[in-house]
C-alpha cells in the first residue's frame, strides 16, 4: 500500500464545470433528477496519429458552444500538454517519469505501470463522476497514445467495465481516413476496430477522421457497398485478396453492428452527426446493454464478482511485482521476482478464499480487498523468507 | 536460403520469454539461432543478440530531441523508420551465412503492422536477402479466456497479418501461468470445432452479434489464418510443436535435407576415385 500511495496520489478534480458561470446546469435540488438522464461516458480510442486528442479538444469546444460542456478525463500519463480543459488528469495522480525512474522501466512499461497505478485508485474517479452525472451530458475519456496500453491491458478492461457498470458507456474509435490508402490497410484497421468491439462489448462508433484532408467518399463506399469493396480488394495483388470475400463478409456484418461517422477533428465537420450517433448509442446502451448486464449480474452475481476481483488482484499484483523488483541489483530483482511468483499461487488461493466470505459494494470493495491481499502477500513473503527447517 | 521468425504482439505478451525459450530449446538440439532486437523500448533480456536496434538509434536521444518533439510512441515509430532507412546496418549484422536462422524481437505498436509501411518494407528486404520469414504473433492467454476475448485476439492477429503477407502462426502465451479454469476454457477454444465457436451463445452479447461471430468463426475454419498454438514454456512438447510448425511454414529443414545427398555422393565419388588411383 505504501508503495502504491507513494507513487499514486489522490484523485483530484479541476476546473469543475459548475464553477463556470457560462455553463447551464441542472439545479441540484431538481426533483426530476430521479429519472433524469445521466452522463454518457465516451471512451475515445485510436492509434497514435489518428487525431484523438484534437478530436477531444474540438469536440469539447463544439459541445460547449452548443450549451453542453463535457466533463473530461485524461488517461494518458505521458502526454506533454492537454489542449482541453481537463477535469481529472492522470498526471496529477501519477508522475510517469517518476514511475519510470523508480522502477527502471522503459517508456512502454512506464505508461502501463502508471495506468495500472491510476486504476488502483479508480474508485476515487467513480466517486467524482457520480457527483457530476446529472450535471453534464457527456464525460469524455482521452486514452494513452499507445492504443494497446488500453485495449490490451487489465487496466483498460477494468476502467471500461467500471464505467459501463455505472454509466451509459460508448466506445469511440478515431480512425485516420488518410491512412486507408489501400483497401488492405483499410481492412487491417477495421479488423482492429472489430477486435476492440469484441473486447469492450459496448456500443461502438467509428469517427473517420481527417476528412478535411482526404475525401471520405471512397471509404464510405467501401463500407456501404460490399461489392464495391470486394472489387477494390481483388485489384490488389496480395494474399489478403484471396481472403477478401471472407473478410468482406466479416466487415459487412461489423458495419451493421456499429455506427460510422466521417468527421474532421480540425474543422468540426461531421460533429452534429457524431453527436446524433452518440445519442443513438446511448439509447442502445440503455435499452439493450443495461438490461443484459443487470440480468447477468443477477444470474452470475458470485462468479462475476470473483472474476472482477481476480482481475483487480492481478492488477495490484502486477504493480506490486514491479515495485518489489528494484532494477539496481540483479540479485535483488531475481529474488523479488521469485518471491512475487511464489506469492501468485499461494496468495491467490488465500485471497480468493477471503473474497468469497467478503460481501461488499464493488466500489468500496477494491480498497478493502486490496488491504487483505497485501496482508496475505506479506504473510507469504515472510513464509518464503524463512530458512528451510 | 536463410530463415527468420518475426516475433510480434502487444507489450507484455511474452515476446522476450518466447525468444529465450526457443533459443535454449534450439541450443539443446544443437541448432544455432540468432536473435535480433528490433524493439527500441526493450528493457531487459537475458540472452545475447547479434544486433540491437538500440545500437543504431537510441530512444532517449529521439524523445529528448527538442526539434523532433516526439512523445514515447512517436519516438518508437521514428526509430523503426530510421532503421528502414539504414538497412545496410542490419544487412551487415546479419552476415551472409547460408542456413542461418534468425529471430527478430519486434516492438508491440500495432500501428507498425496495420498502416505504417515499416514492417512491410523490412520483410520485402528480407526477401531480397533470401530470407524466408514466418510471422509469430503472441497473445497473453490471460486475455483470451472468454469467447469474446478469444475472438478479439484472433482479430488483432489477423489485422496485423493481412498487411504482412507472410506465413504466420499465432501463439497463446503464458499457458503455464493460468489457473485450471482458464486453462480448460482456452484449450476448449483451441481444440474446438469452429462451428461450435460461432454458436457460442452463452453471452447475450454474442447472441446479438451471432452473424458477425459466425463470419469470423468461418475464417478459423477455412483458412487457418487465425490458427492458434498454445505456448507453455515449461512444456517441451509445446515448444517442439511450435518450432516444427514454424519451420514447416518456411520450409526450414527441407533445404538442409537436399544438401546432404550431394555431400554423400561427393564422398562416394572421392572414394571411387581413390580406388582407381590405387589400382
Automatic annotation (TrEMBL), chain A:
<keyword id="KW-0175">Coiled coil</keyword>
<dbReference type="Pfam" id="PF03029">
    <property type="entry name" value="ATP_bind_1"/>
</dbReference>
<dbReference type="InterPro" id="IPR027417">
    <property type="entry name" value="P-loop_NTPase"/>
</dbReference>
<comment type="subunit">
    <text>Binds to RNA polymerase II.</text>
</comment>
<comment type="function">
    <text>Small GTPase required for proper nuclear import of RNA polymerase II (RNAPII). May act at an RNAP assembly step prior to nuclear import.</text>
</comment>
<feature type="compositionally biased region" description="Basic and acidic residues">
    <location>
        <begin position="350"/>
        <end position="359"/>
    </location>
</feature>
<keyword id="KW-0378">Hydrolase</keyword>
<keyword id="KW-0342">GTP-binding</keyword>
<keyword id="KW-0547">Nucleotide-binding</keyword>
<dbReference type="GO" id="GO:0003924">
    <property type="term" value="F:GTPase activity"/>
</dbReference>
<feature type="region of interest" description="Disordered">
    <location>
        <begin position="317"/>
        <end position="373"/>
    </location>
</feature>
<dbReference type="InterPro" id="IPR004130">
    <property type="entry name" value="Gpn"/>
</dbReference>
<protein>
    <recommendedName>
        <fullName>GPN-loop GTPase</fullName>
        <ecNumber>3.6.5.-</ecNumber>
    </recommendedName>
</protein>
<comment type="similarity">
    <text>Belongs to the GPN-loop GTPase family.</text>
</comment>
<dbReference type="GO" id="GO:0005737">
    <property type="term" value="C:cytoplasm"/>
</dbReference>
<feature type="compositionally biased region" description="Polar residues">
    <location>
        <begin position="337"/>
        <end position="349"/>
    </location>
</feature>
<keyword id="KW-0963">Cytoplasm</keyword>
<dbReference type="GO" id="GO:0005525">
    <property type="term" value="F:GTP binding"/>
</dbReference>
<dbReference type="InterPro" id="IPR030230">
    <property type="entry name" value="Gpn1/Npa3/XAB1"/>
</dbReference>
<dbReference type="GO" id="GO:0005634">
    <property type="term" value="C:nucleus"/>
</dbReference>
<keyword id="KW-0539">Nucleus</keyword>
Automatic annotation (TrEMBL), chain B:
<keyword id="KW-0378">Hydrolase</keyword>
<comment type="function">
    <text>Small GTPase required for proper localization of RNA polymerase II (RNAPII). May act at an RNAP assembly step prior to nuclear import.</text>
</comment>
<dbReference type="GO" id="GO:0005525">
    <property type="term" value="F:GTP binding"/>
</dbReference>
<protein>
    <recommendedName>
        <fullName>GPN-loop GTPase 3</fullName>
    </recommendedName>
</protein>
<keyword id="KW-0547">Nucleotide-binding</keyword>
<keyword id="KW-0342">GTP-binding</keyword>
<comment type="function">
    <text>Small GTPase required for proper nuclear import of RNA polymerase II and III (RNAPII and RNAPIII). May act at an RNAP assembly step prior to nuclear import.</text>
</comment>
<feature type="region of interest" description="Disordered">
    <location>
        <begin position="254"/>
        <end position="279"/>
    </location>
</feature>
<dbReference type="Pfam" id="PF03029">
    <property type="entry name" value="ATP_bind_1"/>
</dbReference>
<dbReference type="InterPro" id="IPR030228">
    <property type="entry name" value="Gpn3"/>
</dbReference>
<feature type="compositionally biased region" description="Basic and acidic residues">
    <location>
        <begin position="255"/>
        <end position="272"/>
    </location>
</feature>
<dbReference type="InterPro" id="IPR027417">
    <property type="entry name" value="P-loop_NTPase"/>
</dbReference>
<comment type="similarity">
    <text>Belongs to the GPN-loop GTPase family.</text>
</comment>
<dbReference type="GO" id="GO:0003924">
    <property type="term" value="F:GTPase activity"/>
</dbReference>
<comment type="subunit">
    <text>Binds to RNA polymerase II (RNAPII).</text>
</comment>
<dbReference type="InterPro" id="IPR004130">
    <property type="entry name" value="Gpn"/>
</dbReference>
Amino acid at each position: 500500500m505504501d508503495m502504491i500511495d507513494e507513487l499514486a496520489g489522490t484523485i483530484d478534480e479541476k476546473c469543475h464545470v459548475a464553477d463556470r458561470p457560462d455553463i447551464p446546469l441542472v439545479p441540484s435540488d431538481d426533483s426530476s433528477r430521479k429519472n433524469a438522464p445521466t452522463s454518457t461516458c465516451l471512451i475515445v480510442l485510436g492509434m497514435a496519429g489518428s487525431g484523438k486528442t484534437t478530436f477531444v479538444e474540438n469536440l469539447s469546444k463544439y459541445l460547449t458552444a452548443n450549451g453542453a460542456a463535457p466533463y473530461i478525463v485524461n488517461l494518458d500519463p505521458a502526454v506533454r500538454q492537454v489542449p482541453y480543459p481537463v477535469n481529472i488528469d492522470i498526471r496529477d495522480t501519477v508522475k510517469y517519469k517518476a514511475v519510470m525512474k523508480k522502477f527502471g522501466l522503459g517508456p512502454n512499461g512506464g505508461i502501463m505501470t502508471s495506468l495500472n497505478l491510476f486504476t488502483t485508485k479508480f474508485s476515487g474517479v467513480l466517486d467524482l463522476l457520480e457527483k457530476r452525472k446529472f450535471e453534464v451530458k457527456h464525460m469524455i475519456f482521452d486514452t494513452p497514445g499507445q492504443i494497446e496500453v488500453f485495449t490490451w491491458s487489465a487496466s483498460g478492461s477494468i476502467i471500461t467495465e467500471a464505467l459501463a457498470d455505472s454509466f451509459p458507456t460508448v466506445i469511440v474509435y478515431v480512425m485516420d481516413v488518410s491512412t486507408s490508402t489501400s483497401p488492405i490497410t483499410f481492412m487491417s484497421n477495421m479488423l482492429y476496430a472489430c477486435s476492440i468491439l469484441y473486447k469492450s462489448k459496448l456500443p461502438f462508433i467509428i469517427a473517420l477522421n481527417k476528412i478535411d484532408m482526404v475525401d471520405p467518399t471512397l471509404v464510405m463506399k467501401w463500407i456501404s457497398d460490399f461489392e464495391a469493396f470486394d472489387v477494390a480488394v481483388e485489384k490488389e495483388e496480395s494474399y489478403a485478396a484471396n481472403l477478401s470475400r471472407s473478410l468482406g463478409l466479416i466487415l459487412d456484418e461489423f458495419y451493421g453492428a456499429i455506427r460510422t461517422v466521417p468527421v474532421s477533428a480540425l474543422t468540426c465537420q461531421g460533429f452534429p452527426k457524431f453527436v446524433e450517433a452518440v445519442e443513438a448509442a446511448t439509447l442502445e446502451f440503455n435499452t439493450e446493454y443495461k438490461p443484459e448486464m443487470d440480468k447477468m449480474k443477477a444470474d452470475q452475481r458470485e462468479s462475476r464478482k470473483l472474476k472482477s476481483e481476480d482481475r483487480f488482484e492481478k492488477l495490484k499484483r502486477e504493480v506490486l511485482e514491479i515495485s518489489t523488483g528494484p532494477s539496481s541489483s540483479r540479485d535483488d530483482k531475481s529474488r523479488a521476482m521469485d518471491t512475487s511468483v511464489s506469492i501468485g499461487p499461494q496468495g491467490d488461493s488465500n485471497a480468493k478464499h477471503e473474497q468469497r466470505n467478503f460481501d461488499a459494494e464493488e466500489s468500496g470493495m477494491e480498497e478493502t480487498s486490496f488491504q487483505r491481499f497485501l496482508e496475505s502477500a506479506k504473510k507469504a513473503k515472510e513464509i518464503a523468507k524463512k530458512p528451510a527447517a | 536460403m536463410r530463415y527468420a521468425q518475426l516475433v510480434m504482439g502487444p507489450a507484455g505478451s511474452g515476446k522476450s520469454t518466447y525468444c529465450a525459450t526457443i533459443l535454449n530449446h534450439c541450443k539443446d538440439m544443437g541448432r544455432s539461432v540468432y536473435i535480433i532486437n528490433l524493439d527500441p523500448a526493450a528493457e531487459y533480456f537475458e540472452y545475447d543478440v547479434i544486433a540491437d536496434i538500440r545500437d543504431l538509434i537510441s530512444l532517449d536521444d529521439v524523445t529528448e530531441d527538442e526539434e523532433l518533439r516526439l512523445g514515447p510512441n512517436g519516438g518508437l515509430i521514428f526509430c523503426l523508420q530510421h532503421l528502414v532507412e539504414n538497412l545496410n546496418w542490419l544487412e551487415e549484422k546479419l552476415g551472409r551465412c547460408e542456413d542461418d536462422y534468425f529471430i527478430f524481437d519486434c516492438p508491440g505498436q500495432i500501428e507498425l503492422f496495420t498502416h505504417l509501411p515499416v514492417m512491410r518494407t523490412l520483410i520485402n528486404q528480407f526477401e531480397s536477402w533470401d530470407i524466408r520469414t514466418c510471422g509469430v504473433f503472441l497473445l497473453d492467454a490471460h486475455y483470451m479466456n472468454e469467447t469474446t476475448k478469444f475472438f478479439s485476439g484472433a482479430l488483432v492477429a489477423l489485422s496485423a497479418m493481412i498487411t504482412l503477407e507472410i506465413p504466420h502462426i499465432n501463439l497463446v502465451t503464458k499457458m503455464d501461468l493460468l489457473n485450471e479454469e482458464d486453462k480448460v476454457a482456452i484449450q476448449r477454444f483451441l481444440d474446438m470445432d469452429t462451428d461450435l465457436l460461432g454458436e457460442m451463445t452463452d453471452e447475450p452479447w454474442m447472441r446479438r452479434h451471432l452473424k458477425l461471430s459466425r463470419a469470423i468463426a468461418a475464417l478459423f475454419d477455412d483458412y487457418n489464418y487465425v490458427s492458434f498454438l498454445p505456448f507453455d514454456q515449461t512444456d517441451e512438447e509445446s515448444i517442439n510443436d511450435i518450432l516444427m510448425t514454424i519451420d514447416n511454414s518456411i520450409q526450414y529443414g527441407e533445404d538442409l535435407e537436399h544438401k546432404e545427398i550431394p555431400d554423400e555422393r561427393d564422398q562416394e565419388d572421392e572414394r571411387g576415385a581413390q580406388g582407381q588411383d590405387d589400382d
